[in-house]
Amino acid sequence: MIVCCTAASAQGTAYVSSEKDDALTMIDLATLTVKGTVPTCKRGRHIQLTPDRKIMVACTDANAADVIDPATGKSLRRVPLGDEPEAFDLSPDGKTVYVSNEDAGEASFIDAASGRKLQSIKVGQEPEGVKVSADGKTLYVTSEVASLIHVIDVASAKITSNVKVGKRPRRMALTPDGKELWVTNELGASISIIATATHAVTATIPLEVKGARATDITPVGILMSRDGKRAFVALGKANHVAFIDVASRKTTNLVLVGKRAWNVALDKAEARLFVVNGLSDDVTVVDVAGAKAIKSIPVGRVPYGVAIVE
How far apart are CA 256 and CA 293, in angstroms? Predict the structure, then answer.
């Protein structure tokens, strides 16, 4: 097993979590080749960078998050996240981890330093997606079974609103101005757009792929460009990623990628989109300007998420 060992070599790296290998695969952004792996805890799933540029990965079977220093490839600490953690987000200061505990039907607030549970809030069945507002005051959590977005006031740890969206909501993205929350509906082949001022659904974007049945269009991962003009959505079993114009609510491009396109990440220049394909065990690199796939990179078994360090 090769582990990244210097700060210089850690720059320009995509880290891909794996549900089966208990390791992160490292992709060199310059060469688009695998340069090694970093060991981590069991069943790594959601992965993102902390405010201080460390890597945090939720390990569902370990009931914890692993915090890894990309400069050394070493684990700094394990943060207990409760039973069956799948997705999480961090407060803007990085001090609190907000996590969905699927089996318990709870959203938990965890102290990132000590691992102590600060709050636990009952939500709908099978909570998954977690997103905190830029000001840190509002938390959004999806309930897959109830088809709800729970709006939680962070200060009081109370649900202030329950918003009905499409069937089986999974992940969310906020527009840069914070005015809209975009939600992928995995079994609804759609995106629900929620106005954050009113917590009302203002639009629903249907997702279509020529030749694919609606039941095979299963959107999960979503992210926004920094300027808020475009959204990128992984379409699951449809094996495509959609480019959506935010202003017009229209799909402008569809790019064929690997099997079960699950989660997505952009490099710093927003020139390349990295699409994690859970059933073909690879990552598709997409040229954003040309809206075309340029390379498929084999990674770990059942890859789940990707985070990029530059």
Answer: 7
How far is residue 234's CA from residue 274's CA, in Å, rounded to a whole number? 10
Contact 246, 224 (CB under 8 A): yes
Contact 121, 114 (CB under 8 A): no
Query: Which residues, other chains included, contact 10 with Cβ-Cβ below 8 Å and sequence gap of 6+?
Result: 4, 70, 71, 73, 309
Q: Report the 3 state secondary structure along the chain.
A: CCCCCCHHHHCCEEEEEECCCCEEEEEECCCCEEEEEEECCCCEEEEEECCCCCEEEEEHHHCEEEEEECCCCEEEEEEECCCCEEEEEECCCCCEEEEEECCCCEEEEEECCCCCEEEEEECCCCEEEEEECCCCCEEEEEECCCCEEEEEECCCCEEEEEEECCCCEEEEEECCCCCEEEEEECCCCEEEEEECCCCEEEEEEECCCCCCCHHHCCCCCEEECCCCCEEEEECECCCEEEEEECCCCEEEEEEECCCCEEEEEECCCCCEEEEEECCCCEEEEEECCCCEEEEEEECCCCEEEEEEEC
What tokens were used for 105? 């039907």
Q: How far apart are CA 119 and CA 54, in angstroms?
A: 24
Is the pTM value of this prediction over 0.70? Answer: yes
* Largest separation between any pair of C-alpha atoms in the chain: 51
Confidence of residue 5 (pLDDT cuts 50, 70, 90): very low
Mean pLDDT across the stretch 83-110? 95
What's the Rg (C-alpha) of the chain? 18
- pLDDT tens for residues 149-165? 999 999 999 999 999 99
Joined tokens for residue 230: 């475009």
Is the predicted pLDDT of residue 1 greater than 90, yes or no?
no
